[in-house]
Amino acid sequence: MIGSDYVNSSEGKIVTIFGGSKCGPDSQEYKEALKLGALLAKAGFTICTGGYLGIMEAASRGAREAGGRVFGIVMNQFKAEPNRYLTDKVATDHFYDRLQNLITRSVGFVVFKGGMGTVTEMSLVWNKLQTRVLERRPIVLIGSCWREVVRSFEENLVVSENDISLLLFADDAEEASKLIVAHSQNVVV
Q1: Which helix (H) or strand (E) covers residue 47, if one does?
Q2: Is 167 helix (H, G, I), strand (E, B) or coil?
Q3: Helices in 43-172 by DSSP H: which ranges?
Q4: All domains of the chain, ordered by start, with CATH?
Q5: What distance in Å separates the CA atoms of residue 93 and residue 57, rounded to the nearest whole number?
Q6: Along the 189 residues of the chain, how does pLDDT read in single tens digits?
Q7: pTM of this structure
Q8: Is 180 helix (H, G, I), strand (E, B) or coil?
Q9: Strand partners, 168
Q10: What CA–CA distance (Å, rounded) separates 68 from 14?
């Protein structure tokens, strides 16, 4: 679990980046996450990810190569090694603890395309915002796939326009970075 030293004023604002673990360095998603990590690090944000491969590695790598700090929230149950770009590793024993640690200290979130783990992460953040368990903060869905997914939620589930208004959409890393910077300035953690 995250200790009391996880976030303090000297560490600055944290942005959590979610996304699939299966994309490689040649994929567009990886390249965009790499760019986003660098842009956010240069803007003074600490990056937080699940700590493993794919989007998590790309965002971590981008931030680290730009001189930023990178937290990886990893699971003791996983056999895989965390990616090499982390500056800090926080190990958790339970899935929910991991999710809580990825969510509670962040001033914003960016969600790339991924699998059911990514959908779970995005849904939990969205639900915490919708129920006001978390103060309002940006959750940016990056890539065209999310518009279709959210439209399907709206058409097939009980999702209101007010719920949808909690989400921001971006086509690429540059747009996502601008949204995080602009919207996170009013967030109090």
Answers
A1: strand 46-49
A2: strand
A3: 55-65, 95-103, 116-130, 144-156, 161-164
A4: 11-180 (3.40.50.450)
A5: 21
A6: 223 233 333 457 999 999 999 999 999 999 999 999 999 999 999 999 999 999 999 999 999 999 999 999 999 988 889 999 999 999 999 999 999 999 998 999 999 999 999 999 999 999 999 999 999 999 999 999 999 999 999 999 999 999 999 999 999 999 999 999 999 776 554
A7: 0.91
A8: helix
A9: 140
A10: 11
